[in-house]
Amino acid sequence: MKFTYLGIHGLDEHFGKIPLGSIILLLGTPGSGNDIFAMQSLYIQAEKGKRIVYLNLDYSQEDIVMEMAAYGWSIEKVREKWIFLDAYNKPEEEVEKIWIEYLDSIVEDNWTAIDTLNTLMEVLGREETDKRINELRRRARKNTGIHYIIMMKGEEERRIEQQIKRYVDGVIEFKMVEGENRGVINVEKMKRRKGTWLAKEYRLTDRGIVIETVGEIR
Q1: What is the predicted pLDDT for the residue at 170?
Q2: Is 119 exposed, middle or buried (0-12, 13-18, 19+ CB in 10 A)?
């Protein structure tokens, strides 16, 4: 098999173009690379001059910067384009304020990420989180850019996962082969786009995610 780095065109060259103004759920078990995909994709956009807003709830800003550096993605190179909204270990009232700041950041062609939805639900509660996602959806519709929601599979009830899938515009699921650093990326859903979405094999490397380019899994 031949693999290629998830490069400047992101998923476009592998699956097709994700519609701008979309909210995309990146679903996977811990270690599957769904968070790495978000960092990698957003870093590429920052290098292209897009403004990035990263709402971090699961890990501190420092830990995320260190993880990105391990893959060769230097925040210093994109410092003017990358903003962290640090909600890690913050109380509910502070997370509420940070959420408002996050919503206000969705303007023009900014790209954003929420890391993770599981922790947002833990802090704010399920019903309040649903309201926040609907607010995000309304705001995203009026602007360009793509907005990733990272969610760890299996940490919530299945019915909750299914409900979240209905809220978002696209669902990309990461499934690793147990005990190995390879798996399958499956684009399960993508609204406002015609055509067929395919599954592709991927690997986690020291450069981030690489995607198989020869043949199709389905």
Answers
A1: 92
A2: buried
